[in-house]
Amino acid sequence: VQLQASGGGSVQAGGSLRLSCAASGHIDFFTYSMAWYRKVPGKERDFVATIGESGGRTDYVDSVKGRFTVSKDNARNTVYLQMTSLKPEDTAIYYCALKSGYHSTLQWQYPYWGQGTQVTVSS
């Protein structure tokens, strides 16, 4: 299984970006959940959002609730993270991660990881 993250870039505060994470390989994507994490240099990688197998269940870290939306397109084997009202503190490398079954906020439960995409928000 491979994950390809894309969509990062540089925006001003208040702007928007949409990250994508496409999964490839011999998997039944509709039986997998996906999560987004982010990492700032010198800090640990933190949970951002997760979405369940069908796309019906989601969970977010409090700091992004109301601003970020995670969605899943099982026909395209792709998960999206729509980010609006971006703040400088959202600057980080964003990683997508994949696991079979129920969604989780716990990093250690995700065996598959994408390469990361940089998001930079300037004030």
Please explain how this structure is put together.
This protein has 123 residues and is mainly beta. It has strands at residues 2-6, 9-12, 17-24, 32-39, 46-51, 58-60, 68-73, 78-83, 92-100, 112-113, 117-122. The protein contains no helices and eleven strands. Helices cover 0% and strands 51% of the residues. The strands form two sheets. Strands 2, 4, 5, 6, 9, 10 and 11 form a seven-stranded mixed β-sheet that branches.
In short:
With 123 residues, this protein is an all-beta fold.
- List unreliable stretches of 5+ residues: none
Class of secondary structure makeup: mainly beta
Count of separate DSSP helical elements: 0
Query: Which range does the strand content fall in?
Result: over 45%
- What's the β-strand tally? 11
**What summary fits the major beta sheet?**
7 strands, mixed
Shape: globular
Average residue pLDDT: 97
Helix/strand order? EEEEEEEEEEE
Distance between the termini: 37 Å
What is the share of helical residues? under 10%
Cα-atom Rg, whole angstroms? 13 Å
Topology (elements, then pairings):
Elements: E1 2-6, E2 9-12, E3 17-24, E4 32-39, E5 46-51, E6 58-60, E7 68-73, E8 78-83, E9 92-100, E10 112-113, E11 117-122
Keywords:
mainly beta, single chain, 123 residues, seven-stranded mixed β-sheet, 0% helix, four-stranded antiparallel β-sheet
